[in-house]
Amino acid sequence: MKPVYIHNIGFVANLGGNGQEAWENCVSKKSCFSKFNGEAVAQISDANFDEFNPEHKGYKRLDRSTQLALFAADQLKQNLNKETSTLVAIGSSRGATGIWEEAYSSFSKTGNAGLLDSPLTTAGQLASNVGAYLQSSNFIDIDQSITCASGLRAIADACAWLNAGFVDQAIAGGAEAPITDFTIAQMQALKILGGEGDFPCKALMPNLDKNTMVLGEGSVLFDLSLEPKNAVVKIVGVGFGTETGNSATGLSPDGKCFQHSMKMALKATGWEKPDAIVAHAPGTIKGDASEMAAIEKLFGEIPTTSTKFLSGHCFGSSGPVSLWMAVQVIKNKQWIAPDWSQSLEPKSINRILINAVGFGANAVSLAVENNPVL
């Protein structure tokens, strides 16, 4: 594939309302967690987002996930070429879950549905609202929902559209706002929550003996094109993998879907191996172990980190958060890993592999490297 260049990034998560603030909190390893229904969560508490009130008809009625996507898109708006053909591709695992839960609760009590319940809860409203807000005169929108791999899959799709010549630029990434009563209850039923302390998610902790996943929220969107000018990092490989394991998530103990997606992503790069990996690693016993088994089988001992110990698990937006982390690590030449990690320090930080996976064992891997042509 032709390299796809990352020009600008719109970012909002528990770590901050923009990429610079978030990176500073990563470097200082600031704990940005709170509580919801008795569980640790990585919830956004940002005055800039709270005060955000764009010129968008019906903004206040939109689901929080869409509002987060608009906030991230606003950071890209100024530098966007509004006259060229543009793909808007956004992934979300649960979609408009907050609005949906409110609508169903009202329906179960009254027997009546709200006038706008359907358009506000459909998957298509996410990317279409972002496209309309960006005011591009020639855009096509695609919403992805492939569990927790949704955001990275949307970016992979954008790479395909750009390489095919269907569009000249793409805005791609993820948006998720799953910190709701029903979603928390579902995760409790699965028994995968349970982290404690300043850093409750113990992603990549050696000999992890309990599940410590923490729900997070956020939106990360990338401005992509085939033009190398002014791009710090480029995407040079894309990989996919699925499997039918016997676990509840579909993952096998040796992470066959990860093995396939990582091999596929590397095939296009010419690398023997990456300098480092930003793993999916959600802080669950079986999830972390499966991915690490796949990594060790392909690469042996290699520097590996996960954003989840800082950002929580943002479901469909978690892959874009990981890609954002990889871009910052390459740009700043500074490795970020949890204190309990036994990972090696990378000797160089130019080539990074990013993984994401979700229920159904739908793995996606992206290979990125620094762009020397600025």
TrEMBL record:
<comment type="similarity">
    <text>Belongs to the thiolase-like superfamily. Beta-ketoacyl-ACP synthases family.</text>
</comment>
<dbReference type="GO" id="GO:0004315">
    <property type="term" value="F:3-oxoacyl-[acyl-carrier-protein] synthase activity"/>
</dbReference>
<dbReference type="InterPro" id="IPR016039">
    <property type="entry name" value="Thiolase-like"/>
</dbReference>
<dbReference type="InterPro" id="IPR014030">
    <property type="entry name" value="Ketoacyl_synth_N"/>
</dbReference>
<feature type="domain" description="Ketosynthase family 3 (KS3)">
    <location>
        <begin position="1"/>
        <end position="370"/>
    </location>
</feature>
<dbReference type="InterPro" id="IPR000794">
    <property type="entry name" value="Beta-ketoacyl_synthase"/>
</dbReference>
<keyword id="KW-0808">Transferase</keyword>
<dbReference type="GO" id="GO:0006633">
    <property type="term" value="P:fatty acid biosynthetic process"/>
</dbReference>
<dbReference type="InterPro" id="IPR014031">
    <property type="entry name" value="Ketoacyl_synth_C"/>
</dbReference>
<dbReference type="GO" id="GO:0005829">
    <property type="term" value="C:cytosol"/>
</dbReference>
<dbReference type="InterPro" id="IPR020841">
    <property type="entry name" value="PKS_Beta-ketoAc_synthase_dom"/>
</dbReference>
<dbReference type="Pfam" id="PF00109">
    <property type="entry name" value="ketoacyl-synt"/>
</dbReference>
<protein>
    <submittedName>
        <fullName>3-oxoacyl-(Acyl-carrier-protein) synthase</fullName>
    </submittedName>
</protein>
<dbReference type="Pfam" id="PF02801">
    <property type="entry name" value="Ketoacyl-synt_C"/>
</dbReference>
